[in-house]
Amino acid sequence: MKTTLGIAFHGAARTVTGSRHLLTFGGKKLLFDCGLYQGRRDEAERINRTFKFDPAEVETVVISHAHVDHIGNLPTLIARGYAGPIHMTPATADLAAVLLADSAFLMQKDLEHVNKRRGERPARTPLFTMADVEETMTRIVRHDYHVEWSPLPGVTARYDDAGHILGSAITTFEFSAGGRTRRVCMGGDLGRPARAILRDPETPASPDSLVLESTYGDRLHSDDDATVNGLIEIFHRTFARGGRVVVPAFAVGRTQELVAMLHTLIEDGRIPEVPMFVDSPMARNATAVFVRHPECFDEETFAAFHDKEGAPFGFKRLRYIGSPDESRALNDRQGPCVIISASGMCEGGRVLHHLQHALGNARNTILFVGYQGEGTLGRRLRDGAETVNVYGEPCVVRAEIAALDGFSAHADQSELLQWVRSFAPAPRKIFLVHGDLAPAEVLAQKLREQTGATVHIPELGQEFDLWE
Ligand SMILES: [Zn+2]
């Protein structure tokens, strides 16, 4: 019988969300990532509820990392009849437990709100429930980095560190039949060299075919020194005014990276010792996962973690806020302080009451350290709105609005190119996913010039042969 190896791109094709790639080898189906599509409510509902393949026919699922756009639709897959295991690294599994439970909880709350307004129309049902999340967690099989395992007969898999978020992996598959082997590398989301906490992205064995993200395929991040110096200047001038710095930050990854960075800057005497607070129950849970997985840290973080009693996540000037009362009590504090709180785009969570309290006072600074999506409160503030609505009430913006864009967890154009060039020989075929069309096209051209590979930017649902 003729051997076949194919890949079909069922998500994150010419967009940055909803990763789902279906590999088919000798008639058996392996799904790589099963992310939630995040976007406008109705469109997202439709996309997340539809699988262009029968989940019951999938034999196995392999996951790259715990971001919701890579794991968030697993419970739906299970609810639709997927019966097999879900492979991931141990740190990804622990983060998935926190993130999927949070996702089911938020979905339920959102639905109650929506159904209240639907009146006579039939009530909407959730995409998945907490029971689906619990079932998902029982299917997880954990694999450490650098250990080979077999997801299907005739197939081996191995995880290398992607340096993107805790537990993130680059996955290399080897498909063997009839004395031939094809190596396929699924890059997942690729991190950046020399970041706080995580190791640099590793380079696995050279693949025949590479699936690569292209989020920042046409952009270069500002360099690290500029970001750190910018942070120091913002802190100094805010504290000199006697104000506070409120940082809306994503609870997983960005918060821990900031905390580790502040720890180093205080140790080095580059920022004054002011009280610092992390106020997000989600960030607290995520940090607990970080503390359980020192095997994912780079050397400096690992050493600091062991030598200095829980530093860099629990240094002595930093307090993790618990109850809502404790959170509100921060509003009564006088003098300089730093409050890191979620959500990162100010679309909900405790950061809202900190904004409501801080925005009207010119002494304070609101510091953005992450991407602010179209239509979010974070984007309106970043774009310089003079008045915004918080909890439905108008708030005049008098505080300084600052933004540092050097914190991205995704490799930029030069980092992506450098990583691909580290393969010798270069992959013959490269597929660009997880990026809008414009950045993907710019990156594709550079890759063609620098590696000689055939580079595709798949459309949604498009299939390719990886055996020939
Ligand atoms: Zn990611």
Task: Explain what the structure shows.
This protein has 468 residues and is of the alpha/beta class. The protein has 2 domains: 272 residues, Ribonuclease Z/Hydroxyacylglutathione hydrolase-like (Metallo-beta-lactamase, Chain A, 4-Layer Sandwich); 180 residues, Rossmann fold (3-Layer(aba) Sandwich). It is 32% helix and 22% strand. The protein contains 14 helices and 22 strands. The strands form 4 sheets. The protein has a 7-stranded mixed β-sheet. Strands 7-8-9-10-11-20-21 form a 7-stranded mixed β-sheet, covered by helices on one side. A 6-stranded parallel β-sheet has the order 14-13-15-12-16-19. A hairpin with a 2-residue loop joins strand 9 and strand 10. The longest helix is centred in the N-terminal third of the chain and has 27 residues. It is globular. The two termini are 15 Å apart. It binds zinc ion.
Number of strands: 22
The chain-level structural class is alpha/beta
* Alpha carbon gyration radius: 23 Å
Query: What is the name of the CATH architecture of the largest domain?
Result: 4-Layer Sandwich
Q: In the CATH hierarchy, what is the superfamily of the largest domain?
A: Ribonuclease Z/Hydroxyacylglutathione hydrolase-like
For the largest beta sheet, what order do the strands appear in spatially? Answer: 6-5-4-3-2-1-22
Describe the global form: globular
Ligand catalogue:
zinc ion
Q: For the report, how would you describe the main beta sheet?
A: 7 strands, mixed
Low-confidence sequence ranges: none
Helical coverage, percent range: 25-40%
N/C terminus separation = 15 Å
Helical region count? Answer: 14
The fraction of residues assigned to DSSP E strands is 15-25%
Number of domains: 2
What is the CATH C-level name of the largest domain? Alpha Beta
What is CATH's topology name of the largest domain? Metallo-beta-lactamase, Chain A
The overall pLDDT average reads 93
